[in-house]
């Protein structure tokens, strides 16, 4: 994963990272398909292990996919620019619009907001907050859910 101090941000490497760092997401079937810019795509397929009693994907799995779709670009920007910044979700909003069946794809495209937030955090001793959103769509392109996560970025103090 991390090679000579540099993590390769490929879908394969990120999926291995999920297995190690977020095994519940990996077991639920969430997979990185594309990592941008200009976009990040993750997917999950409805299976027995991630279903609810109503024969669709459990909402918690959808929230994990939505959060990872916003968190991976943020993590990448922080890592590649090598600032000592911590990141934490401090709030979230979700709307579930349709039963999530089959394959669901999560998409994030707001890379400009990620870059701006990391820039602000690098030059501030105070936490920086940024709302980042992602959408989940089924194979037919219908929106099944939308997510917003409030991320807090804070430069770590030198100790």
Compact description:
This protein has 159 residues and is an alpha+beta fold. The chain contains four helices and eight strands; from the N terminus they run ββααββαββαββ.
Largest sheet: 6 strands, antiparallel
CATH class bucket: Alpha Beta
Name given to the CATH homologous superfamily: Hotdog Thioesterase
- For the record, give the distance between the C-alpha atoms at the N and C termini, rounded to a whole number: 28 Å
**CATH topology name:** Thiol Ester Dehydrase, Chain A
- The helix/strand class is alpha+beta
Order of adjacent strands in the largest pleated sheet: 3-4-6-7-8-5
CATH architecture designation: Roll
Based on CA atoms alone, the radius of gyration comes out at: 16 Å
**Would you tell me the overall average pLDDT?**
93
Uncertain runs? 1-5
Total helices: the number is: 4
Instruction: Specify the helix fraction band.
Output: 25-40%
The overall strand count is 8
Notes on the structure:
- By secondary structure, the chain is of the alpha+beta class.
- It has a single domain (9-155), classed as Thiol Ester Dehydrase, Chain A (Roll).
- It is 33% helix and 35% strand.
- The strands form 2 sheets. It has a 6-stranded antiparallel sheet with strand order 3-4-6-7-8-5. Strands 1-2 form a two-stranded antiparallel sheet.
- The relative contact order is 0.18.
